[in-house]
Specification:
Blueprint: H1 2-17, H2 33-37, E1 65-82, E2 91-94, E3 101-113, E4 116-135, E5 143-160, E6 165-181, E7 204-218, E8 223-230, E9 234-235, H3 246-249, E10 256-266, E11 269-278, H4 284-287, E12 310-320, E13 325-334, E14 355-364, E15 369-383, E16 397-414
Antiparallel strand pairs: 1-2, 1-3, 1-16, 3-4, 4-5, 5-6, 6-7, 7-8, 7-9, 8-10, 10-11, 11-12, 12-13, 13-14, 14-15, 15-16
Length: 415
């Protein structure tokens, strides 16, 4: 029993220790390798035990399953500062001192009856990381960067109300970990309500909880529809960074909702489309603008990153080439979460990529086992600042750039 428990908790421990990344703002484009290969679309087409992460209603359609995957993620981040009146500030800054990250995921699903299923999904909700190779003089004297990890453990139950409609609900138990470095210029009473809780304090952890509900309807043999809503996840405060984030270290995970369509256009071909709205603008530590400063860092109305709500559109295709081989492809586009005027603080969180191309495949083995693979590329994007650095910091512009690649491998067992 202890051995089985250890096997179950090991992926969770790995998640907790792994910096996570995402590209719809700081959310993942999708959950599970199957979904990622389809551009992140999957609200109306559950295919593995990670379905609960997107639409809890989907687990009643995937049978008894266990899925595990690991993704190698490689984001390349950089910034340039131009037109600054401060000496020695202009130039390029490499934010990719850490480049390669491994991100695991796990899902387990069990049918209690033909109409009721239970399961649990463990997955990275998202995160962001910047790790500059040199200090940024406008921020501080040490190597600048942030590391934000967010993960969920989501026990789920779903049931079929009738032959065409299913409903599900997940309890999202969330964990976040954050650290910041190289912000010495703000660790004083002029800028912060708690100057000793701004920077270089190593990791600060927080737990929280929320819910996700979902509906999945099979209209006929060729058309399925789905809808899902995740509440705001109310998190503990980052106590070590109460002088940095608004609301004395508050950093709740924002609510989001999505709808999806799955259309079988041929016996072996299904086209998918999802639209997701992420409400970053409701979390003050993310949404408050950086400048002009209305209140000190850490105060309720203290500076943030200037993020607003975004919409992500996800289009995918699933092609069953043979009984053993399924091929996938997809495209994901997300809105830019902040305006170019907010680039200064977003030197720490350069989430500027918007266009993602994905591909994936499943190879069936014996006895219900399968191998999954998914690849995603986020195209290079540069956002040039617009009056982004305040005059009292020397003026000029902060320009942010990023591109990303990721490849994942996984195994699934199903009945």
């Amino acid at each position: 029993m202890r051995t089985e428990l250890a096997r179950l908790l090991l992926p969770l421990a790995l998640l907790a220790a792994t910096p996570l990344f995402a590209t719809d703002g700081y959310f993942s484009i999708g959950y599970g390798l199957v979904q990622v290969g389809q551009g992140g679309a999957g609200v109306a087409l559950p295919q593995d035990a990670l379905a609960a992460a997107t639409n809890p209603a989907g687990i009643v359609f995937v049978g008894d399953r266990f899925d595990f995957g690991v993704t190698l993620f490689r984001p390349i981040r950089s910034a340039t500062i131009t037109g600054s009146g401060a000496p020695g500030v202009d130039g390029g800054y490499d934010a990719s001192r850490k480049k390669d990250f491994f991100v695991p995921e796990l899902g387990f699903n069990h049918l209690l009856s033909p109409r009721v299923a239970v399961g649990v999904a463990m997955y990275g909700n998202g995160g962001m990381d910047s790790a500059y190779t040199t200090p940024i003089p406008l921020l501080g004297s040490r190597l600048a960067g942030v590391d934000l990890v967010q993960l969920f453990v989501s026990p789920t139950i779903a049931f079929k109300a009738n032959a065409h409609n299913a409903f599900g609900v997940s309890l999202n138990v969330g964990y976040s970990r954050f650290s910041a470095s190289g912000l010495q210029n703000f660790a004083n009473a002029q800028f912060s309500s708690a100057p000793n809780n701004v920077t270089d304090l190593y990791g600060s952890g927080a737990f929280g909880a929320g819910v996700r509900v979902g509906w999945l309807g099979t209209i006929n043999k060729v058309l399925s529809l789905g809808a899902t809503y995740q509440s705001r996840t109310w998190m503990q405060k980052f106590g070590k960074y109460q002088g940095l984030f608004a609301e004395q270290g508050g950093f709740d995970i924002p609510a989001n909702f999505a709808g999806g369509v799955a259309l079988k256009v041929a016996p072996k071909v299904t086209i998918l489309f999802d639209a997701e709205r992420i409400q970053y603008g409701s979390v003050k530590s993310m949404a408050n603008p950086d400048f002009p400063i209305q209140a000190p860092l850490g105060a309720s109305n203290g500076p943030g990153f200037g993020w607003h709500d975004i919409t992500a559109e996800k289009t995918g295709a699933d092609f069953k080439l043979s009984p053993k081989l399924t091929l996938r492809a997809g495209y994901n586009h997300s809105g830019l979460p902040f305006n170019p005027s907010q680039n200064f603080f977003n030197l720490l969180a350069p989430a500027v990529v918007q266009h993602h191309l994905t591909a994936g495949a499943t190879w069936g083995l014996r006895d219900g086992k399968e191998i999954n693979i998914a690849y995603q590329h986020a195209f290079a994007k540069t956002v040039n600042g617009a009056n982004s650095i305040p005059a009292n910091f020397g003026g000029g512009e902060a320009n942010l750039s990023m591109y990303q690649n990721a490849i994942g491998f996984g195994f699934g067992w199903g009945k």
